[in-house]
Amino acid sequence: MNLIDRYVREVGKHLPAKSREDIEKELKSTLEDMLEDRIEQSGRPRDEAMEIELLKEYGAPEKVAETYYPNQYLIGPRMFPMFKMILKIVGIVLSVMAIVGIMVGLGRVGFAGREFAQVLMQKVFDYAGAAITAFGNIVLVFAILERTISDSEIKGLKLNEEWDPAKLPDEEQPDTIKRGDLIAGVIFGFAGLVLLNFYPEIFGMPLNFNDDTNWYFIPVLSEAFFRFVPWINVVFLAQIGLDLYLIRQNAWSTVSRVAKILIEAAGLAITIMLLRIPNIIGFSPESFNNLPIQADDASRVMEILNYIFPFILVIVLIVQGIELAKAVYRFWKVNYKVK
Amino acid sequence: MENSNELVQNMTLELRRGVIVLSVLSQLSKEQYGYSLLKSLSDQGLEVDQGTLYPLLRRLESQGLVASDWRIEGEARPRRYYVISQQGREVLAQLKTEWSAIVKTTNKMLF
User: Fold this and answer.
1) Which of A29, A58, A59 sits opposite B77 (nearest CB)?
2) CB contact under 8 A, A58 and B50
3) pTM (two decimals)
4) Same domain, A18 and A101
5) What is the pLDDT, as a whole number, of residue B69?
6) Which residue range is the domain that position A139 belongs to?
7) ipTM greater than 0.90
8) Which of A307, B55, B79, B85, by CA, is between 20 and 30 Å from A211?
9) Which residue of B has its CA nearest to A58?
């Protein structure tokens, strides 16, 4: 194998597989043309020194391969403003959570002493970890969107785009989608999936007792709850799929409205089933056996949790009920309401 | 801070980048393979780097402005010949008009 072939093969290693063969063929043809030209001009026979000179001038294989790629970035300029906005929102939410969490944690141990320093360090590390995870997930979602949404579809996302007041719609457009909401939905849905499937231990309760410097973490949700995770996953994935479909379609349609109703109904059904499970809380008085806690205190904590969790589920149920009612109303309004 | 020479060099590159598409399309009314096009541009005073020309030709082809075809002539090696398409001709005509207007306006401001 001569130097030209070796060079072409090396360039090919850095090219996308789809166009590699074609580019390699053309590169070889060009290099041979250039070499032929040099032989003619110099009157020298072809030799390795001449090939080396030519290849050096042509450039390092990686550099040559690079020229065939369009601009490479994880999140391009078209998506960057939206990415920054979501990052800011998540950053604010996390910061508030972190401040509240740190204050609550420090409130238990006091604002001085060794425990104070330990709890403060622990909390700061916890929230730094959460911030890095959130940042990673947001970057991942935007990197996927960057590669799946075309330029024309992205137009609606341009935050600084010039707008014409005369083009404001003179009546409500029921099929218009809200891209910002949909993208936020995709990101939070994705984050929910990640937390539920990869960090289920996050659904728990940290406990600290007055006379103890240790923190105890008790998982709150039972096996009975986690049996529903595959169904919850299906609803999350369906919602993410619908959001991405709407971003692509740029408008609601009968099919997407029906899909929305079905997804909301499925979510509602899961919440109702969760509410009907008697042993949804994952711990019993025995869970406190190894903890420095009195039986009375344990039963009090149990009692609180047994009220709190159904209460949270009822709130979720109400929100889902409202969303379902809105979806059904919009479907009816567009398809059946007498205009 | 960049010195004036570097600045001029970079700005000249930017100016040239803007006219390469126009120049390449103008040279493809008769079909040419990559290296012959490179030489043709060079002979007329426009030095274009291979690393710029070949990716540009691929982009123009994907945009439908140029068509290409692999061919072996005689005992020579296979070569990819490029020629401007019908859409490319229409775009070139519009670009020429734009170019004339830009040159006229800029000259008016500069001289």
Assistant:
1) A29
2) yes
3) 0.49
4) no
5) 93
6) 73-157
7) no
8) A307
9) B50
